[in-house]
Design goal:
The protein is an alpha+beta fold. The strands form three sheets. Strands 2-11-6-3-5-4 form a six-stranded mixed beta sheet. A three-stranded antiparallel beta sheet has the order 1-10-7. Strands 8-9 form a two-stranded antiparallel sheet. Strand 8 and strand 9 form a beta hairpin. The radius of gyration is 21 Å and the shape is elongated. The mean pLDDT is 92.
């Protein structure tokens, strides 16, 4: 692993800091923390693995992709579980990451006789015997079928290396870039709050993961 820098900055009007009856500075700090956490989540899936970006699951485990290119079926889910279970993993802790738009599709999945396949266990946060997390940072396409992905694996083998913890800095003299325009905090009576974190991601065993791509969440018009 090689540390990459993740940074976020929020400009705040000094009127807000002076006049707010709330703890505005704490609120803004929490916004930076949440924004950085969201960026980490997105990068853990889609990071390109370049010099300045960690490598996410879709790149590190590109050979573990299951191409659906249609509606998801129970067989796809079974195949994904079987693909990971066939790997030699010691004491695996397996879990799903599912976009919210796909949850309803799987929850409503029925057999030919009309029985719900996964509904009872999904009420308890489990899919095909393994817990799932709704992750709305999973991409949903702008195409007619709003294609998306689903991820499954042993997340113990997704490594996060932190070089330095999140550092928050505040300045009323610095400047920031808004698009292509440089904005002076001092000139505009602003305070800038910046968060910086240095870390990297890595997949220990690619065989510990599988992901399905091209899943329709909408029918073609």
């Amino acid at each position: 692993l090689s540390a990459k820098k993740l940074a976020g900055i929020i400009p705040v009007s000094n009127e807000l800091l002076r006049d707010s009856s709330l703890a505005a500075d704490r609120f803004i700090r929490d916004e930076i923390v949440n924004g950085i956490a969201e960026a980490e989540d997105i990068t853990s899936l889609y990071g390109t693995g370049t010099e300045n970006a960690p490598k996410g699951i879709t790149v590190a485990c590109a050979d573990r992709k299951v191409v659906v290119n249609g509606e998801i079926t129970a067989q796809t889910i079974y195949d994904m579980v079987g693909k990971v279970l066939s790997a030699k993993l010691t004491n695996p802790v397996l879990a799903w990451r599912i976009p919210g738009v796909l949850w309803a599709k799987i929850y409503g999945m029925q057999t030919a006789s009309g029985s719900y396949i996964f509904r009872d266990e999904m009420k308890n946060g489990v899919l095909c015997g393994y817990p799932f997390k709704i992750d709305n940072n999973i991409t949903v396409g702008a195409d007619a079928n709003a294609k998306t992905q689903i991820f499954f694996g042993d997340w113990q083998h997704f490594l996060i290396g932190v070089e330095s913890a999140l550092q928050i800095s505040i300045s009323s003299d610095a400047s920031y870039t808004d698009g292509e325009k440089a904005v002076s905090a001092f000139e505009n009576d602003l305070t800038l709050m910046r968060g910086i974190l240095r870390e990297d991601f890595g997949v220990r065993y690619a065989e510990a993961f599988v992901w399905a791509d091209g899943i329709f969440t909408k029918a073609s018009a």
